[in-house]
Amino acid sequence: MVAQLAEPSLTHFLDLLLDVVCVVDRDGRFRYVSAACESVFGYTQEEMLGLTVQDLVHPEDRDTTLEVARQVMAGAASTQFENRYLRKDGELVHIMWTARWSEQDQVRIGVARDISRRKQAELVQSALLRISQAAHRTRDFDSLLDQIRAVVANLVPCEVFYVALRDDRDGHWHHSFYRDERDREAAPPAVVEPLCERVHTEGRTLLLGPEALAAGPGDGPRFWLGLPLLDEHGVMGVLVVKSYAPLARVTEEDQNLLEFVADQVAIAISQRRMLAQLERQARHDVLTGLPNRALLDDRLQKAISAAERDSSMLALLFVDMDDFKHVNDTLGHDAGDRLLQLTAQRLLASVRASDTVARVGGDEFVIVLEGLATTDHAQALLDKIQAAFLLPFELGPQGSVFSRLSVGMALYPRDGTTPAALLRHADKRMYAAKEALSAPPARGQGDIDN
Q1: Which of 114, 145, 177 is the endpoint of a domain?
Q2: What whole-number distance in Å separates Cα of residue 80 and Cα of residue 61?
Q3: Which of 116-120, 125-129, 140-144, 212-216 has the lowest mean pLDDT?
Q4: Is residue 11 part of a domain?
């Protein structure tokens, strides 16, 4: 004989549901909640009874929630209404409700479904799209990082957003971008450099609290999250975020999102470095690193405009190396290339930082001297160049050589007011200087004709 089972109560069935079944009175006070409340809201059934909806709902959603409650109590059924609650542990939970009013019992009966994962996935997908679009559309790097920071701040608490890049040549960290929402004028505090060093050394994401970092003045017990910015060579920089609410609550999903953001920042940095390199190659001589003809034309035009505006003088020097072909033919192309590089360095050292030295041909250089008051000033700089070439060039295994120069000078506005006119006059005088050499000068003497 089979024993009869007692009929289970309705609550036994309700407690099996993954969604939370709630009964709320007219004042919004919970009168019944099913067992799923603990996994969704973080409170036990006993803890929730007596609390009101307004005790738990997110402050920004209270007015909308009250309005929907009034509509339900007026007889309107509510389905798929979404709002946000704060769990017992302080974390945010997104809820989708279905509710109706029981006039007989004077209670609202609702079913709450936790849709936090879905909402987070939607937010993340939207954020990733916006970050990707910004990375492709925004050329200014600071603007790009500010856009990324704004997107991330909607998902993860990060009032402080910081990108530091490491110079492998000297091991120093360069502050590329820093934004503190509480203090827009603040500079990166000292505590981040030890974090950056650790992330660089370990090559992984680190969440560090005050016990692991020497907190700076006024920094307080903060938590810092550092994420490596990776390229094909390793860690090229670090993305650091901090919240004034401790970051100890960063979830695995949050960290995954921030690691994706770090990847996007790293890609953007790499793309911009590559673009800068391509732009530099397009406007600079590969061998010497000096501006090429294209960049010279741009700078010369700007220099002429400045001289016209300031009523000042500029000088253009056309420089030719008289001995380059001999060195290149007798000692080889490597020696010739080295001589060109050393010549570029010596010319740069002989002029001011505001002047331009460009390579415009195989062994031809052009120098633009700006902001001159008199022709004597131009002559003094020319004499300095001449003196620099009295010294030999050390070419390594090929030994040392002297190299003479022939120089032609044109002055603005005396010899012309356009780049073409000044170049034509300087080039003509340079060739005149070459032809004027009746005999080779003493070894090491430069040939300057202005």
Answers
A1: 114
A2: 15
A3: 212-216
A4: no
Indicate whether 129 and 248 sit together in one domain: yes
As a three-state string, the secondary structure of the chain is CCCCCCCCCHHHHHCCCCCEEEEEECCCEEEEECCCHHHHHCCCHHHHCCCEHHHHECHHHHHHHHHHHHHHHCCCCEEEEEEEEECCCCCEEEEEEEEEEECCCCEEEEEEEECHHHHHHHHHHHHHHHHHHHHHHCCCHHHHHHHHHHHHHCCCCCCEEEEEEEECCCCEEEEEEEEECCCCCCCCCCCHHHHHHHHHHHCCCEEECCCCCCCCCCCCCCCEEEEEEEECCEEEEEEEEECCCCHHHCCHHHHHHHHHHHHHHHHHHHHHHHHHHHHHHHHECCCCCCECHHHHHHHHHHHHHHHHHHCCEEEEEEEEECCHHHHHHHHCHHHHHHHHHHHHHHHHHHCCCCCEEEECCCCEEEEEEEEECCHHHHHHHHHHHHHHCCCCEECHHHCEECCCEEEEEEEECCCCCCHHHHHHHHHHHHHHHHHCCCCCCCCCCCEECC
Evaluate whether 35 touches 45 at the Cβ level (below 8 Å).
Answer: yes
* pLDDT tens-digit series, residues 86-105: 999 888 899 999 999 999 99
Q: Is the pTM of this model over 0.70?
A: no
> Does the residue 237 lie in any domain?
yes
Domain check: are 22 and 106 in the same one?
Answer: yes
| Number of structural domains in the chain | 3
Examine the domain organization and report whether 266 and 307 are in the same domain: no
Per DSSP bridges, beta strands 364-372 and 400-401 are unpaired
pLDDT digits (tens, 9 = 90+) for 317-374: 999 998 888 888 889 889 999 999 999 999 999 999 899 999 998 899 999 999 888 8
Tell me: do 330 and 407 sit in the same domain: yes
Same-domain pairing of 56 and 36: yes
31 phi-psi bin (left φ>0, alpha ψ -120 to 50, beta other): alpha
Asked if residue 288 is part of any domain, the answer here is no
What domain range is 412 assigned to? 293-448
360 within some domain: yes
Q: Is residue 91 domain-shared with residue 175, that is, in the same domain?
A: no
